[in-house]
Amino acid sequence: MTEEQKLFQKTVRKFCEKEIKPLASKIDKEEYFPWDMYKKMGKLGLMGMTVPKKYGGAGIDKICYMIALEEISRLCGSTGITIEAHNTLGNGYIYEAGTEEQRKKYLPRLTGGEAFTALAITEPNAGSDVGGIQTTAVIDGDEWVLNGTKQFITSGDIAEAIIVMAKTDKTKGTKGISAFILEKDTPGFKVGQLEDKLGLRGSKTAELIFEDCHVPKENILGEKDKGFYGVMDTLDRGRTAVGAMSVGIARGALEDSIAYAKQREQFGRPIGKFQAIQWMIADMATEIEAARLLVYRAAYLEDNNMSFSKEAAIAKLFASEIAMRATRNAIQIHGGYGYMRDRPLERYFRDIKLSQIGEGTSEIQRIVIAKRLGL
Amino acid sequence: MNIIVCAKQVVDVSEMKVDSKTKKPILQGVPQKISDIDKNAIEEAIKIKDKHGGKITVVTVGPSDAKERIKELLAMGADEGVLISSTDKYDYRIVSSLLAEAIKKIGEYDIVLCGEASIDMFSGQVGPRVAGLLNIPQITYAQNINAEKDKTVAMRNMGDKSVTTESSYPVLITVTKEINEPRLPSLMQILGAANKPINEWSAGSLTKELQPKVETIELKGIPMQRKNIVYKDDVDDSVKKLVDSLAKEGVLR
Ligand SMILES: Cc1cc2nc3c(=O)[nH]c(=O)nc-3n(C[C@H](O)[C@H](O)[C@H](O)COP(=O)(O)OP(=O)(O)OC[C@H]3O[C@@H](n4cnc5c(N)ncnc54)[C@H](O)[C@@H]3O)c2cc1C
Ligand SMILES: Cc1cc2nc3c(=O)[nH]c(=O)nc-3n(C[C@H](O)[C@H](O)[C@H](O)COP(=O)(O)OP(=O)(O)OC[C@H]3O[C@@H](n4cnc5c(N)ncnc54)[C@H](O)[C@@H]3O)c2cc1C
């Protein structure tokens, strides 16, 4: 890490210790959404990390972004995914694919912590198979008319600007998809049910319904019928980020386990003196370091404009799988105490599961990796 | 209002371990940071600048890697940094004279702010010595500063009482930890700090007298031993015994 990156890490860590740590349990148990905290995050620059300063962002590189996501997720997975979805899926997509007008219109508010954004791809009948979406957009004079239903959309209910993926050519699969920026008070747009989830309970996951939603023609994001490529590009970026989130949650499991193993005594000595516990902890530490390096590598490639699609999939696959294992073993190390809700171990375990599902399941990552290997 | 803040790079004592055999602190690989109380001084400087405008210059005597630590202060809101490159063998006398010479070289200033002491050695000598060398008034242990246009009023923490003191400018003030809570720089400020100037002046260019008069021969941790006395008889009886022995130890008076 460069000195600047270390300073980033230190700064974000201090902020998280002060602002997130005291709320993390409440965020999970009460599905509490800390608006004030997100406003403070906006001031610090965490709501528009990789967006250039010109559009109100912090303009930091991808490695620093990963460092920040790890720190945030270390203490609270819900905050981690909310920040990740907002920064990568929303702001990132608008910045990468948007016109100068679109960037100027939307990004300053979104990066300042004033408002959230969301990306709506998934539908009841189309998850992994993005080409199978059924939401449609039809041109009508100067406007696009959207119809359809999206589900599982992170921050979909609170977002001011939502990127909606829709079919602009129903005869084609992936080659007939476009992206649109929809503002939340557009007539015909409704928030449906909010999901009751296993983990990440402080992050909002919403169903979105579009009934003859009229969107100005200029709100198409990127080229018509090329939306699939834009969204895949965004998901590539998101994968590295989910990898960083996973490393953060796994680090929480590891740090808590080390502290507990030193302090808990059974059979007359600290359980950390038993080889069975040592090996679990040693494996966790090894896998976390490897995962972090994979995440940094993918981010480094992205920072340097090299292709990073395979590396991002590798980082996400590995990091989410090892983090799942780390959180499971952390409960094991804590014995009965790990199973109880007054400690955060069971929360880590519930929160991390999403990393193997969201932004491409582990199976889909393997498909991407295999494809990039020429299979 | 032009403000100069003296800030020291120290080892992060919370990460420091003591060798259990030799009782010597293990300093290798321990991260460095800006002494906590000096950060309170910077924070106070930023507050004064916010009120009156002006410029904040940070001065550090330290090895060249201290530049990286100065960047954090620039990110917080200081405008310029000065590093007086040195070895760490200097005693307080030399460090103070280097700081005083540097402050004279910087020239225009209204307030010099220091921490009451650095968290590593905690001598508390540097602030007063610098004020003496500059021949300006000093206010030590300020827990509150109200900088007005032509004078400053500060409340000094004297342990069991506080004393309000007034001074004209220029003045040197040392602050205590409770004076404020240092801010976190934003990510934008951290990036911006890279463009703020840090000048490096050699110690030799400021003073010719660099021979320390105080020599540190050894640093040792103080071994702390617990007595592990457990009173487990009757509660009333145990409480009485505990109070007695605490009184004997001089803990209770
Ligand atoms: C908390 C949360 C937040 C989310 N946030 C968002 C969001 O902000 N925006 C958004 O658009 N979506 C979001 N999603 C949706 C998420 O992206 C999808 O759940 C995910 O892509 C999987 O789709 P699915 O749930 O429909 O599962 P399916 O695609 O139905 O998959 C079911 C199973 O089949 C497997 N499978 C599918 N196809 C193949 C194949 N070809 N080969 C092998 N196995 C296969 C999958 O790996 C999985 O194990 C979110 C989901 C959750 C849980
Ligand atoms: C839902 C629930 C219901 C329960 N119901 C009952 C009940 O009805 N009655 C009852 O009496 N108890 C009950 N318990 C307690 C349960 O039996 C204990 O939690 C269990 O025996 C583990 O003890 P512990 O939690 O103190 O963990 P610890 O014994 O502290 O173990 C912590 C970790 O150290 C490891 N460890 C400990 N010793 C060694 C060793 N020598 N070598 C290697 N590894 C070691 C353990 O495997 C574990 O990974 C219940 C617990 C739960 C969670």
What does this structure look like?
The complex is a heterodimer of chains A (375) and B (253). Chain A is α+β, with helices and mostly antiparallel strands and 375 residues long. Chain A has helices at 3-20, 24-29, 35-44, 62-75, 77-97, 100-111, 227-263, 275-303, 309-339, 345-352, 362-372, and strands at 116-120, 136-140, 143-154, 159-167, 177-183, 189-194, 205-216, 220-221, 265-266, 269-270. A 4-stranded mixed beta sheet of chain A has the order 1-4-5-8, covered by helices on one side. Helices cover 53% and strands 17% of the residues of chain A. Chain B has 253 residues and is α/β, with parallel strands linked by helices. Chain B has 7 helices and 13 strands. In chain B, the strands form 3 sheets. In chain B, strands 11-10-9-12-8-1-6-7-13 form a 9-stranded mixed beta sheet, sandwiched between helices. Chain B has a two-stranded antiparallel ribbon with strand order 2-5. A two-stranded antiparallel sheet of chain B has the order 3-4. The longest helix of chain B has 17 residues, at 36-52. Chain B is globular. The structure holds flavin-adenine dinucleotide (2 copies). The site of one flavin-adenine dinucleotide has 21 residues of chain A, from β1, β3 and α11.
- Tertiary shape of chain A: globular
Count of β-strands of chain B? 13
Which CATH-level-2 architecture of chain B?
3-Layer(aba) Sandwich
Mean pLDDT of chain A: 97
Question: What would a concise description of this structure say?
Answer:
Chain A has 375 residues and is an alpha+beta fold. Helix content of chain A is 53%, strand content 17%.
What keyword list fits this structure?
heterodimer; A: 375 residues; 4-stranded mixed β-sheet; 4-stranded antiparallel β-sheet; B: 253 residues; alpha/beta; Rossmann fold; two-stranded antiparallel sheet; 7 helices
Give the helices and strands, then pairings:
The complex is a heterodimer of chains A (375) and B (253).
Chain A: H1 3-20, H2 24-29, H3 35-44, H4 62-75, H5 77-97, H6 100-111, E1 116-120, E2 136-140, E3 143-154, E4 159-167, E5 177-183, E6 189-194, E7 205-216, E8 220-221, H7 227-263, E9 265-266, E10 269-270, H8 275-303, H9 309-339, H10 345-352, H11 362-372
Parallel strand pairs in A: 1-4
Antiparallel strand pairs in A: 2-3, 3-7, 4-5, 5-8, 6-7, 9-10
Helix pairs in contact in A: 1-4, 4-5, 4-7, 5-6, 5-7, 7-8, 7-9, 7-10, 8-9, 9-10, 9-11
Chain B: E1 2-6, E2 9-11, E3 17-18, E4 25-26, E5 32-34, H1 36-52, E6 55-62, H2 66-76, E7 80-85, H3 92-106, E8 111-115, H4 126-134, E9 138-147, E10 152-157, E11 162-167, E12 171-175, H5 187-193, E13 198-202, H6 203-206, H7 235-248
Parallel strand pairs in B: 1-6, 1-8, 6-7, 7-13, 8-12, 9-12
Antiparallel strand pairs in B: 2-5, 3-4, 9-10, 10-11
Helix pairs in contact in B: 2-5, 3-4
The complex binds flavin-adenine dinucleotide (FAD) (2 copies).
Residues 264, 266-267, 271, 274, 276-277, 332-333, 335-337, 339 of chain A line the site of one flavin-adenine dinucleotide.
